[in-house]
Amino acid sequence: MATPTPTRSPELRRDPVTNRWVVFSPARAKRPSDFKSKSSENPNHNSSSCPFCIGNEHQCAPEIFRVPNEPNWKHRVIENLYPALSRNLEYPIGQNGDSSIDLGGWGRVVPGFGLHDVVIETPVHSVQLSDLSPSELGDVLIAYKRRIEQIKGFDSIKYVQVFKNHGASAGASLSHSHSQILSLPVVPPSVSARIGSMKEYFNQTGKCSLCEVQSKDVLINETSQFISLAPFAASFPFEIWIIPRDHSSHFDELDNEKAVDLGGLLKLMLRKMSLQLNNPPFNFMIHTSPLQLTNSELRYSHWFLQIVPQLTGVGGFELGSGCYINPVFPEDAAKLLREVNVPIEG
Which of 182, 75, 205 is CA-nearest to residue 136? Predict the structure, then answer.
């Protein structure tokens, strides 16, 4: 059983992708092998009143598309019934594409226009994302791609965030397996910081920071198209990144073959995480690039998928400093996840 070196000292690590400092403090944790979710997420299997179940489509907000386009669908993309932003607002585009209002020293305001969609990943209430086959999971990923391609037709949309909340404590309001797509008229600061950090690395080395990632000690699994690893400066214990081997700036460049490959690796990571950590609540986010990039920015921007199991809370230090404290070194997390034996499905 893997354990950290007893004399290991705390470290501060800077991530060249996110430009974030992380404090690794093994004294704050049990052995990594003892790191489990306090209670596993057991979804409520009551489908009689669930609006996402097949047969209850009339309870949902308007549908954008379904696959296949017939009553016995496999997944649906719909508008969010309780959207964070409004798709019905007028969004005037000013000079240089800027429609914000300057409030002097108090900041800027833009109209709350945006698109907030839901991807229902399966028609069956009891089926979770990790239960799907690699091909079926690949179809869900292609649904994300298809919707992003539609959203690119809105000139005012600058960034598209795909994310999934699994479990109530991770932010999921319904237990039926689903993910969300939120499209913004601005580029969020964390995205700008990530692109800026990747630019800094490129200017120093002439190479993309994710193409050059050193994965030997933090590698978990790999396929012909993708690698999964515990990032060198992981902000959270047992955080996982899945990275395309080939340089790619935008998630929607994904083709069908790569979608199935990614689906298989994502399924494996979710199952390993569930087995090792007692089926924790989790979030995953697809970190793609802003929709409008220059040719020079394309050289160093590289998309990836991040999975964060919800094992620790965020406290005042993290909120105040922007630095995170991680009690598990990525090398230890990666070793444990590599060694998880996932049963072969029949």
Answer: 75
Tell me, what DSSP letter sits at residue 148? H
Domains of the chain: 14-27+50-84+106-339 (3.30.428.10)
Structure tokens at 96: 């240089």
Establish whether 125 is an annotated binding residue: yes
Residue from 75, 116, 178, 302 carrying the catalytic annotation:
178
What pTM does this model have? 0.89
Share of the chain above pLDDT 70, in %: 87
pLDDT reported for residue 210? 94
Question: What is the C-alpha separation between 304 and 66, in angstroms, rounded?
Answer: 26
In this structure, are strands 21-24 and 324-326 parallel, antiparallel, or unpaired? Answer: parallel
Strands 115-120, 108-109: pairing is unpaired
Residue 211 annotated as part of some ligand binding site? no
Q: How many CA atoms lie within 13 A of 74 on its CB side?
A: 14
Residue 254: helix, strand or coil by DSSP?
coil
Antiparallel, parallel or unpaired: β 108-109 and 282-287: unpaired
Residue 213's nearest CA partner among 140, 304, 127, 295 is 304
Q: Per the annotation, does 208 bind a ligand?
A: no
Give me the pLDDT at residue 234, please: 92
**Is 178 one of the catalytic residues?**
yes
Strands 282-287 and 240-244 come out as unpaired
